[in-house]
């Protein structure tokens, strides 16, 4: 490290440094400013795009009616074109309409597509739970049990236990159903859900 005896030597040293390295520093500053500007532009574009997708989702789902197939198709197309949270939500909205009209195959397919559009664990859990219930209505107990295995998180334990019990009972496995509901009753479930599962266990007797 150089030691300077007075301020003049320090100033001369700085001058020499900038004379030798000024161009490189200037280029670095320009690149840094350009990168910051580019990032801000990208962030602004992302925000604008998200707002546009949100507005389109609200508009399409508000107009959706079961007796107007073209509105269902519009929301379904939106879901196919948006591999994000809004696409997953749109798939759930369309699936609900199909369930209400007893088109369970279409509802299940819609939910399966929605699963691919989100990485959010809670949203995936909700979709899987709805899908398992539909599969149960379709007498596909094994498929429902497999779907339930995809639900992660302690917060869903009771609901999973309730559906799992129904699936096992539909297969004739009363002990399995009892074990599932018992686990649900012992979990941190709502009082109403605990009472319902307890009643189901009592009915097994």
Count of DSSP strands: 0
Average the pLDDT over all residues and give the rounded result: 81
CATH architecture of the largest domain, by name, is: Alpha Horseshoe
- What is the radius of gyration computed over CA atoms, rounded to a whole number of angstroms? 29 Å
How many distinct helices?
9
Outline, from the CA principal axes? globular
- Overall tally of domains: 2
Structure classification: mainly alpha
Quaternary state, please? single chain
Largest sheet entry: none
CATH class of the largest domain: Mainly Alpha
CATH T-level topology of the largest domain: Serine Threonine Protein Phosphatase 5, Tetratricopeptide repeat
Order of helices and strands: HHHHHHHHH
- Strand fraction equals under 5%
**CA distance, first residue to last residue:** 88 Å
What proportion of the residues is helical, as a percent range?
over 70%
List keywords for this structure.
mainly alpha; Serine Threonine Protein Phosphatase 5, Tetratricopeptide repeat; 0% strand; globular; disordered N terminus
């Amino acid at each position: 490290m150089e030691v300077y005896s007075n301020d003049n030597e320090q100033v001369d040293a700085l001058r020499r440094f900038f004379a030798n390295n000024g161009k490189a520093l200037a280029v670095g500053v320009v690149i840094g400013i350009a990168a910051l500007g580019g990032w801000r532009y990208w962030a602004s574009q992302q925000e604008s795009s998200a707002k546009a997708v949100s507005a389109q989702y609200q508009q399409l789902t508000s107009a959706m009616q079961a007796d107007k197939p073209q509105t269902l198709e519009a929301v379904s197309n939106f879901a196919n074109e948006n591999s994000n949270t809004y696409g997953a939500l749109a798939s759930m909205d369309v699936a609900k309409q199909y369930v209400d009209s007893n088109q369970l195959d279409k509802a299940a397919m819609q939910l399966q597509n929605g699963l691919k559009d989100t990485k959010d664990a809670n949203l995936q859990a909700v979709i899987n739970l709805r899908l398992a219930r539909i599969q149960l209505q379709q007498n596909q107990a094994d498929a429902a049990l497999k779907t339930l295995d995809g639900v992660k998180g302690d917060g869903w334990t009771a609901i999973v236990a309730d559906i799992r019990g129904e699936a096992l009972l539909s297969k004739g496995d009363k002990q399995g159903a009892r074990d599932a509901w018992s686990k649900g009753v012992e979990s941190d479930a709502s009082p109403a859900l605990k009472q319902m599962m307890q009643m189901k266990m009592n009915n097994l007797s």
